[in-house]
Amino acid sequence: MTSLNLRTRIVLFLIAAIVAAMGASGRGSAEGAGEGTNWLALANRLEYQTNDGSGLLIWDAQAWYGGDYNKLWIKTEGERRLEGGGGFEEAELQALYSRAIHPFWDFQVGVRQDFEPDPSRTFGVIGIQGLAPYWFEVAAAVFVSDDGDVSARIEGEYDILLTQRLIVQPRAVLNFAAQDVEKLDIGSGLTDATLGLRLRYEIKREFAPYIGVSWRHKVGKTADFARAAGDDVGTASFVVGVRMWF
Question: C-alpha angle with apex 172: 206 to 168, nearest 5 degrees?
Fold first, then answer.
């Protein structure tokens, strides 16, 4: 219990440090360039996945507060199983200081807390987020855990407008690990890949239900760990959900 309390204090301290740094830097930019503050909250994915007959509820949301150059970002994602008594499979929260380094790119640094899977872990985060050529939305980050484990994640998505309201969105996520983490059945190298395709209809710009498909596959040593534990290496899902922002 003591170590958990200490970890919680460390996370809260790092979040407070990020907020303080953002505030100090933001005041400097505002004084020099008249920077104002805004905010945005986006639930990019609130969805149900069939998951080969073992349904999951998925969330992927983020919010930011700040000006043109300096922002505080909060990101969260995870999944909860519906069968077998329910319970969270994954639950993650990030708090990041973000600094614009290019008209289309932000540099981000901060902290990430994984509440699930057990044991919970705390990470330092460093990454970039923005728009690649041809308007691909990209986020890439490196994570260093409190045990010294290093991992990375690359995410990309792209909106294809069929009409002004009907939009197809391909999406891909790749996860990497620099070393084996056997207690979590993670192998070094590319650990897993997720590919998805979603079709949404924007009833309003701020509210869009969607349907789609998602495919997730573990690879390399991570797949070997899954096979040894008798778990599925890959799953395919039908997806239904809603995307909204305000």
Answer: 45
Distance (Å) of CA 94 to CA 64, 110, 178, 184, 240: 12, 7, 21, 20, 25
Q: Using only C-alpha atoms, what is the Rg of the chain? A: 19
| Cβ(52)–Cβ(232) below 8 Å | yes
Which residues pair with residue 234 across a beta bridge? 217
Domain layout of the chain by residue ranges: 2-245
Token pair in block for residue 73: 């970002």
Domain 2-245 in CATH 2.40.160.40? The answer is yes
Please indicate, yes or no, whether the overall pTM of this predicted structure exceeds 0.85: yes
Which tens digit of pLDDT belongs to each residue from 112-148? 999 998 889 999 999 999 999 999 999 999 999 999 9
CB 151 within 8 A of CB 143: yes
